[in-house]
Design brief:
CATH architecture: Orthogonal Bundle
CATH class: Mainly Alpha
Shape: globular
CATH superfamily: ABC transporter involved in vitamin B12 uptake, BtuC
CATH topology: ABC transporter involved in vitamin B12 uptake, BtuC
Oligomer: single chain
Largest sheet: 2 strands, antiparallel
Low-confidence stretches: 315-319
Number of strands: 2
Structural class: mainly alpha
Strand order of the largest sheet: 1-2
Distance between the termini: 18 Å
Strand content: under 5%
Number of helices: 13
Radius of gyration: 19 Å
Mean pLDDT: 84
């Protein structure tokens, strides 16, 4: 655990340095002009920090969904929370309330999660498979609603489409600080329930007999996951599959306890997202930028296919 933690911390530091110095304009720390200094302090650093925090938030969100739904394929993307958060954010864009996008995204995400939770609850107990299917339906409905809103608004359609593809072009210190607070508070709250999450991954009966308040823990985890997703969507658009890929990679490294998975997933999510953002800024020539959501979706789709082919016998079990 400690060796993996130190390795990820070192990798994160290296990735931050590389992503800060590389891009459309390469920066030499020892020979910087005033323009390059401004790019470093007000553009590059906030962007790298925001991308790392969004990666951490989405990885932790996906891990929480997987725990409480007992399904390794669950994350904010497959449960519909990302799409419903995006629907709320698009409403804010259409109303010209860009500064309230995170709040609209949070409202949309929580509303969608409540709907899915109600649909999948039977006599107060959540059916994980039903919740996953309900999330897919919600995601489809939200996507259709977003398409309808784009159809109705010709003026804002280009900005909506660009925003939905995901990216960190609008990074700022305020966004970094706000998301840092959300991630840190979420981590501290989840840290109190490591043992409860491990027990909950078996079944509700075992968890109840062990003294775990199943309903309360599940609702708290769902709310935190929706909160993390909503802020990520509000600040960066829809970036899929991060919550699916990162926790699985950590599990493949033989870490299965919550006390191991949570901190390692947070660090791994930051490394993964900073790397993807660096790719989005350097893959194309002449300073053009590829939306980071396209890259993560491409990697996530291939990884999802790998899971289906290599681990199809285990997909209905939480490992």
């Amino acid at each position: 655990m400690k060796k993996a933690m130190y390795s990820l911390i070192l990798l994160l530091i290296l990735m931050v340095v590389l992503a800060t110095l590389k891009g459309a304009v390469s920066i030499d720390l020892f020979h910087m002009s005033n323009t390059e200094r401004d790019i470093l302090l007000f553009v590059r650093l906030p962007r790298v920090m925001l991308s790392g925090l969004v990666g951490s938030a989405l990885a932790l969100s996906g891990l929480l969904f997987q725990y409480v739904m007992k399904n390794p394929l669950a994350d904010s993307f497959t449960t519909g929370v990302s799409a419903s958060s995006a629907m709320g954010a698009v409403v804010a864009i259409l109303l010209g309330l860009g500064f309230l996008i995170p709040l609209f995204a949070l409202a949309g995400g929580i509303t969608g999660l409540v709907i899915v939770y109600k649909i999948s609850s039977v006599r107060g107990r959540v059916q994980p498979i039903t919740m996953l299917l309900a999330g897919i339906v919600l995601s489809t409905f939200s996507s259709a609603t977003i398409s309808f809103m784009k159809f109705l608004s010709d003026d804002a359609v280009s900005s909506i489409i660009f925003w939905l593809m995901g990216g960190f072009q609008d990074a700022s210190v305020k966004k970094v600080l706000a998301l840092l607070v959300v991630v840190m508070l979420s981590f501290l709250l989840v840290r109190r329930h490591y043992l409860g999450l491990d027990i909950l991954s078996f079944d509700d009966t075992t968890a109840l007999s062990s003294g775990v308040e199943v309903d309360r823990l599940r609702k708290e985890a769902f709310f935190l996951a929706a909160l993390l997703t909503a802020f990520s969507v509000g600040y960066a658009g829809i970036i899929g599959f991060v919550g699916l890929i990162v926790p699985h990679v950590i599990r493949l490294m033989r870490f299965v306890k919550a006390s191991e998975l949570v901190p390692l997933s947070i660090l791994g999510g930051a490394v993964f997202m900073i790397f993807n953002d660096l790719l989005s800024r350097t893959l194309l020539s002449e300073g053009q930028e590829l939306p980071v959501g396209i890259i993560t979706s491409s990697i996530g789709g291939l990884f999802f296919l790998y899971l289906l082919i290599k681990r199809k016998r285990e997909l209905y079990y939480f490992d």
